Description:
Number of strands: 0
Number of helices: 9
Radius of gyration: 49 Å
CATH architecture of the largest domain: Up-down Bundle
Order of helices and strands: HHHHHHHHH
Amino acid sequence: MLIMKKGSGDILASITAAVDDTEKNVKKLRSVWEGYFRNQERLRKKTLKLASFFRNFGDAEGGSTRELVHIISDTLLQCSELKLSSAKVFDPLGVLPDITRRVKVDVKNWESYSKVERKLQLQLQAAVLKDPTAETVGALKKNADNASLAVANGTKNVTTTASDYQREKYNSIKTACLQFLWNEMTTCARRLELVSAGYEQIHRTTGEFQDISGTLKKVLNAYRGATIGSIDSPTYTTRSEASSPALRSATSMLLARAPSKGPEIEMIDRVPP
């Protein structure tokens, strides 16, 4: 909307200033929107990278984990293909420079016509005061009338152009905003559809697991037997060996020769019969 600046009595200056402000604001709007779309493109590349990581992770894990993680990878890959179109958003704003240029041209023309009219009116007044019957008075009057007509036409052009400018500016920005929100809405709806499908697919996945309890038990028992058998201590082999007559005889001979019982002899003496 064209608003006269406070304290200014020149409406044309106010119109020109309002048009200049609109040009600056639209330029900033395009810049911010372009930055938004650049961020969306960077996010899309990050999504592709994450999808690739999930796929490699699933391949490395294998089994049911591979199927599970590949669902996420496929979902992210499909989401990354949903790219917002910035061209459709900027198209409506492309007509604004032409509209603002027309307004400025019409304002400049009106100012030029107005200066000519004032100049001719002053010349006509001076000629009438000097000699109302002079031949130059008629020519000056005709020129002044033509200048006044040019000013009237210029005023009409400025009025029409300014009104059209307000309407077209509003419609252009409105169309751009609607197009932007439409792109966001359709993209978000499609992304929600893909993510929901991936969620349901993962939720239904149960996984298949191999029963390794028996195999693991055998491996652990074999490892335990190998470890016990490797201990170099004949005194603590098995209970049956500790009760054998040969070991009992060796123990009696040690007890007879030993002057006193030490900790190790006491332990051997406690071997059950």
